[in-house]
Model the fold of this input.
Amino acid sequence: MRDEEGFRSFVETNGATLLHAARLLTGDHHRGEDLVQTALIKVYMKWGRIDAPLPYARRALVNAHIDQTRRKWWGERPTETLPEPGGPVDVADVTKSDSRDQLRRMLAGLASKERAVIVLRYYCDLSEQETAATLGMPVGTVKSTCSRALARLRVDATSGAR
Amino acid sequence: MAPPSEFDLRAALAEGEGDAPNPNLVINAARARRAQRRSRILSTVAVVALVSAGAVGIGQLGGTGGSSGNADSAAGVGGAVAGKDESRSNALDYGANSRDAHGAVLVPQAAEQALAAIPCPSFATADAVVGGAGGSGSRARTGAVFSAPVSSAVVCAYGPTVHAYSTTARTPARLELVGAPAVQLATSIETAPTTSAPGPCGQGVHNRYAFVAVGARGQRIATVAADLGAQCAAIVTNGVAVRYDWHPPPNLARRLVALTPMGVPASPNASPTN
Done:
C-alpha cells in the first residue's frame, strides 16, 4: 500500500516550487504544468522506494524536460517571414517587473541544459555538487555551463536581444 | 538593460511562483497510467500465450491428425512397399529405442503414422543429394550426417545409378525401419570413414538408395543418399557430410538387396549380393 498521505503532503509542500521550476524550464505556463505532472507521476510510481523524494523529483523534472526538448515537434519550424528583431531596449523605461520578465524570457533562449543549470542553481538554490548530482554531470561541467549561460544572459541583456 | 546581477536573476526566477498542483489529480493520473501499463503488459502476455498455444496446437495436429490424413496418399506416392520391419510390433524394441536425446518416450502409433506419411524422394532428388556432397568445405564434409538421434527411417531403392531406363519412370521400392534397425543403419553410416580409399566399394555397378531419417518426435532429420555396390557403398551423403566405404549392417544388407524398384528389371550384376 502506498503512503498516499505522505505523497500528498510532499506535493503540497514542494509542488509550487517544482511547478515554477517547470515553468522556468519550459518557458511556458501550460507546458510547465504538464512537465511537473509527468515528474510527479514518476515520483508517485516510485514512492516508498525512494529515500529522498525532492532530489528525485527535481531530477525527474529535468530529465523529462530534456527528453521533451529532444523530440522533433519541439524543434525549430521554418517560417516564410523572419521575426521582428528585438532592437535595443530603452532601459530607462522599463520597470523592475518588466526587466524581470525580460530576464525570464531571455532564459527561454538558453539551451535546455544551460537553463536547467540556471534554474537549479539560482531558483532551487542547489549547490554546484547538488546540481551536478541532479543533472548527472560532473561538477566542472556544471560550472562551465553555468558560466556560459550567465555570460550569454549578460550579453543578451546588454544588447537587448529579447 | 544592464547586465543582471545574481540578485536580479534570483528575483526574476522567483517571481510569479504560484500554487502547488493538486495532488489528487496527480494521483489519479498516476493510477490511470499504471492501469494502462498493466493492461498493456497483460495484453502482451495474452498475445504471447495465445501464439504459443496456437503453435503447440498446430504442432500437435501436424504430428497426429495431419500425418494420418496423408498416410494413404503418401503410400501411393512413395511407391511399392516392399516390407515392414518386424520390430514395429515389438513393444520391447520401442522401449529400448524410442527415447530421444531428451528422454521423451515415443508413442509407437504416432511414429508409424509419421513414417507412413513420408514419401520417397524422387530419383532426381537423391541425385541432387549425391551431387551436392562435400560442397561446403572439409569441416562440413566430415561433420555429422544425422543432426539428431534417429529412431526410424524410410529406405527407398531406385536401382542402378547408370541404366538405360529413364530415371523418372522408376517407382522406388520402399522399406520402413522402426527402432533398432533404423538406429543400426544410422550408426553404421555415421561411423563410416570420412575419407575415400581405393577398394572394392568404388567398383562395379551401384544401386542408388535414399534414407529418410526420422527422429523420436516424428520429425525429419535428414535425407541421405547412398550408392551401394556389391558389398559396400562407395559414397553416403546428406548433401554436405560425406562417408565412404559404408558397409550396411548384415541383416539390413540382405533386405536392401531384396528391394527392387518398379520399372527396373532385376539384374544380378546391379544388385548387392550380400
